[in-house]
Design a protein that fits this description.
The complex is a heterotrimer.
Chain A lengths: L8 H10 L6 H18 L35 H6 L4 E2 L2 E5 L9
Antiparallel strand pairs in A: 1-2
Chain B lengths: L10 E11 L26 H4 L10 H13 L3 E2 L2 E2 L2 E4 L9 E4 L6 E7 L12 E11 L3 E4 H4 L6 E5 L6 E7 L6 H18 L11 E11 L4 H4 L7 E4 L4 H20 L8 E5 L4 E4 L12 E2 L6 E2 L2 H8 L6 H12 L3 H7 L3 H16 L4 H10 L9 H11 L6 H14 L1 H8 L5 H12 L6 H15 L1
Parallel strand pairs in B: 12-13
Antiparallel strand pairs in B: 1-10, 1-11, 2-6, 3-16, 4-5, 4-15, 6-7, 7-10, 8-9, 11-12, 13-14
Helix pairs in contact in B: 4-6, 8-9, 10-11, 10-12, 13-15, 13-16, 15-16
Chain C lengths: L7 H9 L5 H19 L2 E4 L1 H16 L11 E5 L26 H8 L3 E6 L33 H8 L5 E6 L5 H7 L2 E4 L19 E6 L2 H11 L29 E5 L9 H16 L3 E5 L7 H16 L17 H14 L5 H24 L2 E5 L15 H5 L6 H6 L3 E9 L2 E8 L5 H14 L2
Parallel strand pairs in C: 2-3, 2-4, 7-8, 7-9
Antiparallel strand pairs in C: 1-3, 4-6, 5-6, 5-10, 9-11, 10-11
The chains are: A mainly alpha, B alpha+beta, C alpha/beta.
Chain lengths: ~100, ~475, ~450
């Protein structure tokens, strides 16, 4: 059974939203085409028999790498923390309003 | 949800609880930066890792992992031999990396249970609440909004990243809870166990413990098959900032849902925030689409393997938990279950009681008496030494005693303590209190200590 | 010979013998930069003042007869994806234009501790995504051998700077060949160490389970000197291993008699340019004449390597690029270039609900099979050898219309990253004036053997 590896504009639009990106309509066209091409190519993995094969998430073979609960990190100064921000207010990072609550009365 | 108008429209709540507890570590979860103190200036407790700077990498806190396992064991969970961290991907301004390092399919602990306190005299349900999982993750920064500063202004939001990266243990129950009061019981019990373990202060007002109930309603039915069906929606309630509001928030939500269902309306699966001023839950306008977190194993952190002996070492760190202590108090001190439940509320109170009992033995004071005084006399035990309480008891008792009986008791004590009396005469006046205590023991705490002291002195000096 | 044309080894000797000063050495490099940068455009930032201050400090040490480390006073360039405290680190992207890190990458700290002179930050494909440096949001770096052609990528600036003698050493990063391939196309030495040999702390992450920092140098010995300095366990990077760091120059001259050299038949099929093939085969013959035992091996899962790479890497990229929201630093996400956007979207898709098993999980399983190929190969041979790149440097714009075609230029280098093994590219001749690279790969933490073979071959070209 070959699963389809092409991707539709609608799916790309959904992916764009999930990825917090914005595309122009021309970009959506172009990227849909290019992503389809790439997915078609990588889709060949389907043919590979991977029965009983464990997926690799780590190639170091390391386990249990932890650190003790000792405060050894040099803290950043408030100035350093805020230095690269485009917008701040009273030493807080400032962003456009996140609309959160609304009354449903 | 099909509504059959002929049926009895009675609904029962189906509640699951998600509790986040901050373990009392000195440093954050994935960096060796100290955990922020309550009230610290904004953006002064961050390092490249917890600020999410490009190039920064996470290294997990061993203490946080061990305490998570400790909590899981105390809740009767199975501990995973092989576990890992995963990336939970979503965008929100208070999430600096654009993903949270959490755990997905292989959490540290699974399948535990908590038995709520039995109904003996107090309002207890004795309910068994199953624990689905206990896992470890990191906290986000804190968002504030312009309308919190000035209500008409909805133009901007502000972020403080001090709390970003603080470790959080997440404890999730099955939807076994059936009322707001049961929820409150569960949260109280959970906090008690956690404080007993000594792994967190679990102070809700300091943000060290947060809870999010998932509330839905199910039609009550005598059909055995339907009883275990879960409703096809659930509403998550956020922003419950104090123990006082737990029952109120849940009861409001149950009421709200009931009214909608009775009108024949469908209930939206959503997240709602509790408004403590108005005592209501309010819809939070989030994206309608369900979140796709695209979990995958965290490549920057190698997996964690626990051997059985490591788990057992951690288990040995657990000293007596509340339920075991209650059982022992009833047996060992002959207390009633309600009395024992009261005295084990905190480890500190339980220890105080036991110290007082130990000390009280010297003065013939019984455990039951001491228990009674602590429970009923509303004494400020935190500002007392156990020995002081015992003395107060001893001196406070003014039970009448016949002079002849008292005389006899004093004589018995004098006869029995010749050596002590010798040392008294030689100048060791401190032993007088001991002798007073001996007399009280003899009289089974009857008699006024001052009177006894005077009479003893008379007799001792006469013998001279 | 001008001072900037020296190797690290010779420059160190010269400094020790007081034949010239560190300031003179740095000035020679800076003057070459001023001459060549109009054309080559290898640097995004040149830290002239800091470099001269650093050189003066070394001269003081020399005057005081203090011991001089092998890289002290040596002018080194750092790829702009590696964080340098107080110095703009752009990752070749408009997103990080003006971003000044408040901390140093661990490798940069190691350079500073040894009083290495950091000359500047080099150009690269945006966020290290690319094989020609054409994806840089700032400038096109030219191949010093033919300025109408690409230098390779993504560490194109680093490789061109070394090839043009605009520094004596540069640090690059390699996720799918980004050190080795530009080194091959520019005719210099590029070493990708074992994953976990060098700390990634401070490297702007592209694909966390493949990214590696490594040196680009003029000679194998220079690369060995650099590796000795930057390698080591780092408590700030949980994926570094606690393996002791030897002096990587010690065994260089051990020779290659009896060394078993594996040649995978899959590397010599279609897609490999005929002239490049001839050069590589000649190089292998040279090694045989020197006493190496050449063994033909097979890596059956090689044909799936690119597919595995272009699922796993974009998946990790999509998560690693999520922190760029313009809130704490940088500009908002509209400023990403096309290739970055493409990979973010691809990776978001391959991780998404309903597709995770078909793509990401499947690729992770085939990755295990590719690893098995190499584990079995290294039971039969000591090193694996082949071409670094299927072609020599191509002309600007030749491959930019078709992403897949660009991806294919990494066909021989990606497997070392998927499996985590070390690989080096060394020059093995030219085709019509354009350099050809020979790649030598070894087992995990087998850098000594890899460098040894590379050195032996290098000697035959002298």
């Amino acid at each position: 059974m070959t699963k389809s590896n092409t991707i539709t504009k609608a799916t790309v639009a959904h992916v764009v939203k999930l990825a917090n990106l914005k595309l122009t309509p021309q970009e959506l066209e172009l990227f849909t085409r290019q992503l389809s091409q790439i997915l078609e190519y990588v889709g060949q993995l389907e043919q590979v028999d991977t029965k009983n094969i464990q997926p690799i998430a780590q190639i170091t073979g390391l386990e249990n790498v932890e650190r003790s609960d000792e405060p050894t990190t040099q803290p950043l100064t408030q100035e350093e923390v805020l230095f690269n921000a485009s917008s701040t207010h009273n030493n807080l990072f400032k962003v456009k309003a996140i609309l959160k609550e609304s009354s449903d009365m | 949800m099909r509504m059959n108008k002929q049926q009895n429209k009675k609904y029962e709540p189906v509640i699951g609880l998600e509790v986040h507890v901050q373990p009392a570590t000195r440093t954050k979860m994935f960096c060796a930066h100290p955990v922020p103190e309550f009230g610290a200036q904004p953006n002064t407790c961050v390092c490249p890792v917890c600020l999410g700077l490009p190039g920064a990498l996470p290294v997990p806190n061993k203490q946080a992992i061990e305490w998570t396992v400790l909590i899981g064991l105390a809740l009767g969970c199975k501990i995973a031999n092989f576990s890992k961290f995963d990336r939970k991907n979503y965008f929100y301004p208070d999430l600096p990396k654009g993903y949270q390092i959490s755990q997905y399919d292989l959490p540290f602990c699974q399948d535990g249970k908590v038995r709520l306190d039995p109904p003996d005299g107090r309002a207890g349900s004795g309910k068994l609440v199953r624990i689905r999982r206990v896992h470890l993750e990191e906290d986000t920064g804190k968002l504030m909004h312009s309308y919190q500063l000035s209500p008409a202004n909805h133009s901007f939001s502000l972020i403080d990243f001090n709390r970003s990266g603080v470790p959080l243990v997440e404890i999730v129950t099955e939807p076994d809870i059936s009322s707001a009061s049961e929820a409150k019981e569960y949260v109280t019990k959970l906090a008690q166990i956690i404080r007993y373990l000594g792994v967190s202060y679990a102070d809700m007002e300091k943000g060290q413990m947060r809870l999010e109930p998932n509330v839905s309603l199910r039609k009550v039915t005598s059909d055995k098959k339907q009883v275990t069906n879960l409703p096809d929606y659930k509403v998550e309630v956020k922003n419950i900032n104090s123990f006082r509001f737990v029952e109120r928030a849940i009861n409001y939500e149950i009421q709200r849902q009931q009214e909608l269902l009775e009108k024949g309306e469908k209930i939206a699966q959503e997240t709602r925030g509790f408004d403590e001023k108005r005592g209501i839950t309010v819809s939070q306008r989030v994206k309608e689409e369900a979140q796709d977190y695209r979990y995958f194993p965290e490549p920057d952190i190698p997996p964690i393997r626990f051997s059985d002996s490591q788990t057992s070492d951690i288990r040995h760190q657990i000293s007596e938990l509340p339920d075991a202590k209650r059982g022992r108090f009833v047996k060992q001190y002959g207390l009633t279950a309600p009395q024992a439940t009261n005295l084990i509320q905190t480890q500190q109170l339980a220890d105080f009681f036991e110290e007082a009992v130990k000390d009280g033995k010297k003065f013939g004071q019984e455990a039951k008496t001491i228990a009674n005084v602590i429970i009923n006399k509303k004494i400020n035990w935190q500002n007392l030494l156990p020995a002081q309480l015992v003395q107060a008891l001893v001196h406070g008792q003014r039970e009448e005693i016949e002079p002849g009986v008292l005389e006899k008791a004093i004589d018995v004590v004098i006869a029995r303590n010749k050596e002590t009396i010798e040392s008294f005469k030689k100048g060791k006046t401190g032993v007088l209190e001991f002798l007073v205590g001996q007399v009280l023991k003899e009289t089974k705490s009857r008699g006024n200590p001052t009177e006894i002291r005077e009479k003893l002195l008379e007799k001792l000096l006469i013998k001279e | 010979m001008r001072l900037n044309e020296l190797t690290i080894k010779d420059a160190h000797e010269g400094l020790k013998k007081k034949q010239f000063s560190a300031v003179e050495l740095t000035k020679a490099v800076l003057s070459e930069i001023k001459k060549k940068e109009k054309t080559i455009r290898a640097y995004i930032t040149v830290t002239e003042q800091e470099a001269l201050d650093g050189a003066r400090k070394v001269d003081q040490l020399i005057t005081d007869n203090q011991p001089l480390g092998p890289l002290s006073g040596i002018p080194v360039a750092v790829k702009d994806v590696i964080s340098t405290q107080g110095v703009e680190t752009s990752a070749g992207s408009k997103i990080l234009e003006g971003y000044i890190p408040p901390y140093d990458a661990t490798v940069v700290q190691k350079l500073r501790e040894q009083n290495v002179v950091i000359i500047g930050k080099t150009n690269c494909d945006e966020f290290a995504m690319g094989s020609s440096t054409e994806n840089s949001a700032y400038q096109k770096t030219k191949n010093p051998h033919d300025t109408t052609r690409v230098p390779g990528g993504s560490s194109g600036g680093s490789a061109a700077a070394v090839a043009a003698h605009e520094c004596l050493l540069s640090l690059g990063s390699d996720t799918g060949g980004s050190i080795r391939q530009p080194a091959a196309l520019c005719g210099v030495v590029g070493l990708k160490p074992t994953y976990g040999r060098v700390s990634r702390y401070g490297l702007i992450a592209m694909a966390s389970s493949l990214d590696t920092i490594g040196p680009i140098a003029k000679t194998v010995e220079d690369a060995a000197l650099a590796l000795t300095l930057i390698a080591g366990h780092d408590p700030l990077d949980a994926t570094t291993r606690n393996v002791p760091v030897p002096d990587y120059t010690k065994k260089l001259r051990d020779g290659i008699v009896g060394v078993r050299v594996g040649v995978p038949r899959e590397y010599f099929g279609q897609g490999l340019n005929t002239d490049v093939r001839k050069m590589v085969e000649r190089a292998i013959k040279q090694l045989e004449e020197q006493g190496a035992k050449v063994v033909e091996i097979s890596l059956p899962y090689q044909e799936y390597a690119l597919a595995v790479y272009y699922i796993i890497v974009p998946s990790e990229i999509s998560a690693n690029m999520a922190r760029f929201d313009g809130v704490r630093y940088g500009k908002d996400r509209a400023h990403f270039g096309d290739e970055v956007k493409r990979r973010i979207m691809l990776g978001t898709y391959t991780l998404s609900s309903g597709y995770y098993d078909q793509y990401y999980n499947k690729a992770a399983k085939v990755r295990a099979l590719i690893k098995r190929d190499f584990d079995e190969a290294f039971r039969k041979v000591d090193v694996i050898i082949g071409p670094t790149s299927p072609s020599v440097a191509w002309k600007f714009g030749e491959k930019t219309d078709n992403p897949l075609e660009m991806y294919l230029s990494d066909i021989y280098t990606i497997t070392a990253n998927l499996v985590g093994i070390p690989g080096i590219s060394i020059p093995c001749g030219q085709v019509q004036g354009l350099p050809v690279g020979l790649q030598i790969m070894g087992p995990h933490f087998g850098e000594e053997k890899v460098l040894q073979i590379a050195y032996a071959y290098e000697q035959t070209t002298k």
